[in-house]
Amino acid sequence: MNDKKELKKQDKYTAQQITVLNGLDPVRKRPGMYIGNTASAGLHHLIWEAVDNAIDESMAGYCSEIVIKLIPGGKISVSDNGRGIPVDVHKATGKSALETVMSTLHAGGKFGDSGYKVSGGLHGVGISVVNALSIWLRTEVKRNNKLYYQEYKRGKPITKLMTEKGKVSGTGTTQIFQPDPEIFTVLDFDLKIILNHVRQQAYLTRGVKISVFDEREDLGKSKDGKIIQAPSYTFYFEGGIASYVRHLNSNNETEQENIFYVQKERDNIQVEIALQYCKDFKTGIYSFANNIPTVEGGMHLIGFKSALLKCLNDYSKENGILKEKDGLLTSDDAQEGLTAVVSVKLPDPQFEGQTKAKLGNVEVRSAVYSVFKDYFSAFLNENPNDAKAILSKCMLAAQARQAARSARESVIRKGALKGFTLPGKLADCSSRKAELTELYIVEGDSAGGSAKQGRDRNIQAVLPLRGKILNVEKSRLDKMLANNEIKSLIVALGTNIGADFDISKLRYHKIVIMTDADVDGAHIATLLLTLFYRYFPDLIKYGYVYIAQPPLYQLKHAGKVTWIYNDEQLKNTMKELGIDQEIDTSEIVEEGSENENENESEEEIEEKESAKKQKSFSIQRYKGLGEMNPEQLWETTMNPETRIMKRVSVEDVIEADEIFEKLMGSDVAHRKKFIQTYATSVKNLDI
Q: What is the spatial distance between Cα 365 and Cα 271, in angstroms, rounded to a whole number?
């Protein structure tokens, strides 16, 4: 009987159920496949696609200036002084080349031999995707001393290719578009995100000038009647990635005086590398292929690391710096304290995955290896003081590695082999399925006690930390492993650390930082985030780290309890309830009693009712999790059905590095400057 029903269902699956998407319909149907998501990252990706086309013109030698404008009404304009998109009729489509490029997937000058030798947007879908996801788009092209333009709505042309009368000088392309609110959940462009991206592109494309104008607000006129100009930002770096390395190390004390830089073409591959060592412990190697960040590395990074190690070991042996008993430097020794940018440009990049996160071209490895090895060896011989400083740094790293290995073996391996299991203060959960379990890292025994009593013992584990953990930004691994709180956390996670890190052994797939809503709590959370970012980056990368959001206030009104998570929510809730917002929320107001008088006028009754309304509520401000009883902590912060948590992610690795260096590093002057700059923007500072 069941077989007959199944056959009947299969009979209904016919050619009529097969959907064919034409033109740009696939983009609107599945935008995430082309731009990642429809939130902030996807919104800004539209700008990157337009900018990438201009950068491609620059890399081809035809564009020297790019201008980005943020226009009122949620529009963006991206202009370049490149050659301009061709406007003549395309034989295959019968339409102008401009319309073909703007409204056809996989159409562009990046597939044949005559368009671009090197380009970032290798799939040829970029600007047509922008068109498909815009409620309105206008393309303007300057060619042949004329201005051509065409307008589109959601990817479809709404005008013919038009020509504006009058002589036009120069060449170039301008894309003006407005993202479609039917597609995007976020429509506000973030100036900071745009500036960070174009600054990086300007470093990677030496000699191109990129300007950004924020025209979204009408700034009016000055006292003398002149129109106040919109804020503008211009990026131009003649030094290319050498300037980039200098910028990245602006907050660091450097080991070597001269920045190493080389730009050379080998086997039709352009190799550009810059590096400088710092006194810091961390490594910052940033790789790019055709100006696209390859966050997972690839063949160019393998070639660079191999050549770096070879050069340093060869120089050490030739100059008697490393003795035979010392052994050779390892790759980790060679990279400690290193800031480097590795950029390659090649005709046919093969990226692994749609995100273009890893470069797979095997030939790039040998090109990078040979170029870097030749020129870095020469640099070491020509700059003996820099060479000595670099090798001293690497040998110090080797000594620390030996000490850290001994500490790690005694702390982690010894414990695992000899039956040392989990820290005694860890209240573990009963489930052993990591994908279901959660680890709450809480501040102190008081909050730990409430969390242990209020949790779901099946899936939630609690680890209380005593005081503030070590600032790992200033400490090596061996010193870190001597810290009891960090040691307990490492054992609880189960992944090990350093060279022995294994994410498959992670015991919990939600690691939740739960601290008090005060300055100390924020500091503890920052110290923990520094630990995860520097020594457990994969936990953040794969979305395992969260920050709990306990409520700040408990509002009781008319017998009902409302949990308030921030001051803005408190303000809005009080407004909805008709409560005077000038009331001091630090006091608990007791509930009022009724006092009716039938002889009072309507105005008097109304005034008394209003007064009663103001008195019939109470507000409690929670400064510590320990102030909540277990039931309250469960209801507000730990119950998966009602809690609010923030997942920790990193959108810009370079910016994240800079922030951690400023806030957690050893340079006090940079931290002081940062605090002075942003102090006035801090709301409700609790000191």
A: 10
